[in-house]
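Run folding on both entries below.
>entry_1
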Amino acid sequence: MKKILLTVAILSAFSVSAQVKIGANPTQIVPGALFQVNGTNAAVESNPNTFIIRQNGDVGINSTAPAGTLYLKSAYATQTAIGMQGPNSGHMWFLIAEGGSSTYAPNSLYVWDYTQNQLRFLIAPNGNVGLGGISNPSSMLDVNGEIEALAIKGPSDIRYKKNIIPLVNPLQKILALNGYTYEWRKDEFPDKKFKTGKDIGLIAQEVEKIVPEVVYTDDNEMQSKSIDYAKLVPLLIEGMKEQQKEIDALKREIMTLKAK
């Protein structure tokens, strides 16, 4: 009978206070907490090892003031990580919120493939996204590798544009461009997922002297250059039209000579 009364008294105490606190320094509890585990004897407000469930259902891990339904804050100075592994000792992944000091974009969020020891996906604080090992994306979407899509579209509505001027001397510019076959220097740039074997294309430094509008310089240590090949299409169209005018003029001249 005494045990039953004691159990009822304990349950009544829990139901009245609606608070459970265990662990080191159990006398301190965060206001509004339903359940709390203190990891050390430090004051709970500065305790980096506290697990808490608040009355509104928010859960904090290493945080006494969760800012969302589930809020994690690392006791480490550089990053907060969530680890996941597939069943049967499967692939292991980490979702990591990076701190200020890092070899990656500071304060970024990224997915780390622990099994293959590779960076797979990264979001920088400025919103830029990197795929395929890009640690500091220089564009809104920076991909180290091939992209496959049914279509890639870009805005071209005339209502978005101003200072519209026809291309000048397109055929002359086309004739100044040089196409090459080449192989990528994969051994010297192992982080780049360059194609194996022969490839074809233009040289950015040469194109920049002729059509600078299609060449971009990355904001990195190497200041590497890239070409927007799609933007060469208008030049090719206008060049073909100019060439066709010359062909038509020659045809008329030949017809005149034949008539004579």
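>entry_2
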Amino acid sequence: MTVNLTDLIRALSERQFATERQLGELASELKALQARVEALSAPAALQSAALPAVQVRADTAAAQQAAHGAKAEVTPEVLVVIAAAVTAFLGKKVCIRSAKVLQSPYEVVNPWSQQGRVSVQASHNFRSRS
């Protein structure tokens, strides 16, 4: 089996061109992500201004928990942090009306539903690409 040198050079140059194009695309995506990170971190003044604006009362939170029968508490400090994060993300003031701790799906696993998930995931046979 003989390999033509021109074909080998052409294939190499095509791969180099494709690699350079991918590198250019990745560089532009990196610049876009850096701009997004700067935009998200820019409203730091908004975050500090949002903390006093959010009013959370411990007695109101306790009354809401008693009314909803929540087992785990959501402390007022956690509510303030959540409200500040949402305010920083959206760029406008938010008011949290209610919050409760949800049960983790890993705490209680129904064996029937787990077996169903296993059978569905096992039915997806992916072929390996070579």
